[in-house]
Each structure stands twice: as structure tokens, then as C-alpha cells.
Amino acid sequence: MRPRKPIFLGLSLWLLLAATLGRTQVPQLSEYQIKAAFLYNFGRFVDWPAAAFTDGKSPFIFGILGDNPFGKTLDQAFTGKILNGHPVVVQVIHSLPEASHCHILFISSSEKEHLAKIIQGLHAACVLTVSESDQFIESGGMINFVTIDNKVRFQINAGAAKAAQLKISSKLLGLAVSSTN
Length: 181
Known about the structure:
The chain has 181 residues and is α/β, with parallel strands linked by helices. It has one domain (31-180): Rossmann fold (3-Layer(aba) Sandwich). Helices cover 35% and strands 24% of the residues. It contains seven helices and ten strands. It has helices at 5-24, 31-44, 73-78, 96-99, 115-121, 158-163, 170-175, and strands at residues 46-47, 60-65, 82-83, 86-93, 104-107, 128-131, 143-148, 151-157, 167-168, 178-180. Strands 3-4-2-5-6-7-8-10 form an eight-stranded mixed β-sheet. A hairpin with a 2-residue loop joins strand 3 (82-83) and strand 4. The N and C termini lie far apart (79 Å).
């Protein structure tokens, strides 16, 4: 009787190939799933003054001002999450007074025409402003998403964050494609 090495070897190679192909078909994250992960991590690597929270149990509020490009992504990503000991809440924001109660405010590109007014209206609030609009950093915004070589990256205006009494970790500053003081 002959050994069955060729059949066994062929079957082994087929299983190895199938396993490899299975691993390469991992679903790709959408642009806004990636941005949602960045937003969550911004919350981990920025320190807010104690006055930014009413008490130890008040929520950490992510606000979206303008059109919501995330759809349900933020709600799905943040449900049940805790940031700095605070439960995370996602809110659609309709006005500047509402925006001043956020900890992180994503300003949609649909608000580009009102950007200067929004940034000026939040100057005294401890709100980390984030967008994906041209000239956001130059307008006084704090973190701006950019796409470089088909990858989501971000710019930081550390001076604007400091003026809002926010401390951005050196680790986060080191990941930015550009940072201004």
C-alpha cells in the first residue's frame, strides 16, 4: 500500500489557502467608522477642566452640529462606553447654546458658512471642536480631519485648545500631521 502524502499535502495546502483568503476578506471600516474611533480616542487623550462637568456622574457629550455624516455610526460605537469615568452620550446639536454643553463637538462641513460665528460663540466654552472642513484650523478650530494617501489623518490647533482650557496629550499631538500653537 502506498502512502497518501500527495493527497494529504494537497488537502493541507488547500486548507491553508482557504484560511488565508478568509483572513483577507475582513470587512473594511468606512471613513466615518474610522473617524468615530478617532473621536473616541480624542476624548481619551484630551483633559477637560473639572468645571466642564456638572458632577462626577454627568455624561461626556459628543455633539454633532449640522448635517450628520456619521448616520448611526456614533450611536453604535459609543453605546455603553465610558470616558474619563463619564457615560458617553451622542447628541444632535441645533444651536450654539446647546453646543457649549458638549465636550467634543463635530462641526459638519454643512456649517462651513457659519464657521467663524460658531468658533467665536464657543470661545469661552471648554469644547473640543472637530471638523473636516478646509480652513478649519486657520479659523480657530481645534482638530480637523484630512485625507492623505487615502488615509484619515488629523491636524491640531493646540493654541485654540489651550485657550479653551483643554490639555492635549503629547501622544495625540505626535500623531497629528500638523500642529499649530
